[in-house]
Design brief:
With 284 residues, the chain is an alpha/beta fold. It has helices at 20-28, 37-46, 61-73, 93-102, 115-123, 140-150, 166-177, 200-206, 225-237, 241-249, 255-266, 270-283, and strands at 5-8, 31-34, 53-55, 78-81, 107-110, 130-135, 156-161, 181-186, 194-199, 216-220. A hairpin with a 7-residue loop joins strand 8 (181-186) and strand 9. The radius of gyration is 26 Å and the shape is elongated.
Length: 284
């Protein structure tokens, strides 16, 4: 029988946040795969856990995952931990999980702390719908592509950032998204925890004279659907009705549906749109 991979959520700051189930699992598995063994040994020592550890991180995730899968196939149970929070969220653990499923290895997740959810619930922003971007990609083209996508995002947006990159990221967000409400969460669950409701511009002004400290979670208000609608209406005002219909047809709609959508966009009757379309064709 194969062993089981246990995804064990560990504290993001306050060690008291570890669950009894995770403690029991870390003590009884055959091996703990840790993102940084030097970091995780402090957690294990604090709770007097003697289970052997091995490193599993971004730079060895594919090859090391194969090795860990081979141990699981031999019947060993393995716990996966990240430096802080829930493994496989913006984390190399997703590769190990993928390989386990491909090999038919049982996987289970032991719930616990996650910085993104902790920040969201603290933020005061809408929690009904949200998107999690983790760290923005370092590649300039990919980073810009993500920022462009976020311009029309109506859900609450959650982004991770290191303190030494915070001001740069905030400046890029303001340029791409405009100045909008946000909550900056720092040092979550620790003694100096902060959840500061501000704007992107307000945060930039603060850090002109103050050095950011602690790992940060940026929680941004999504764009208002009304503002997107107003932008669309303004663009349609600059477009003749035949052009508007043709724009929908270019997306694969038949003419009847394109006219119906054009009428809805402009608050006109379909008869008015049809008449304007015919007149436009006659003039053309």
């Amino acid at each position: 029988m194969p062993g089981t991979l246990y995804l064990c959520a560990t504290p993001i700051g306050n060690l008291d946040d570890i669950t009894l189930r995770v403690l029991d699992t870390l003590k009884r598995v055959d091996l703990i795969a840790a993102e940084d063994t030097r970091h995780s040994i402090k957690l294990l020592n604090h709770f007097e856990i003697k289970t052997p550890m091995t490193s599993y991180h971004e730079y060895n995730k594919v090859e090391k995952a194969r090795y860990l899968v081979s141990l699981l196939q031999e019947g060993q149970d393995i716990a996966l931990v990240t430096d802080a929070g829930t493994p496989a969220i913006s984390d190399p653990g997703e590769e190990l999980v993928r390989q386990c499923y491909a090999a038919g290895i049982p996987v289970t997740s032991l719930p616990g702390p996650a910085a993104c959810i902790t920040a969201l619930t603290l933020s005061g922003m809408s929690t009904r719908r949200f998107c999690f971007e983790a760290f923005l990609p370092p590649d300039k083209k990919e980073r810009q592509r993500i920022l462009d996508e976020l311009k029309r995002e109506t859900r609450t947006i959650i982004i991770y950032e290191a303190p030494h990159h915070l001001t740069r990221t905030l400046a890029e967000l303001r340029e791409a998204l405009g100045d909008r409400p946000m909550t900056l969460c720092r040092e979550l669950t620790k003694r100096h925890e902060e959840a500061w409701q501000t704007t992107i511009g307000g945060a930039l002004a603060r850090y002109e004279t103050e050095e950011p400290k602690g790992e940060c979670v940026i929680v941004l208000e999504g764009r208002s659907p009304d503002s997107i609608r107003e932008e669309e209406v303004r663009s349609w005002e600059d477009m003749a009705i035949p052009e508007h219909v043709a724009w929908y047809e270019a997306q694969g709609m038949d003419r009847r549906e394109a006219m119906r959508r054009t009428a809805k966009d402009r608050g006109l009757s379909r008869r008015d749109v049809y008449q304007a379309f015919i007149e436009g064709q006659e003039r053309g």
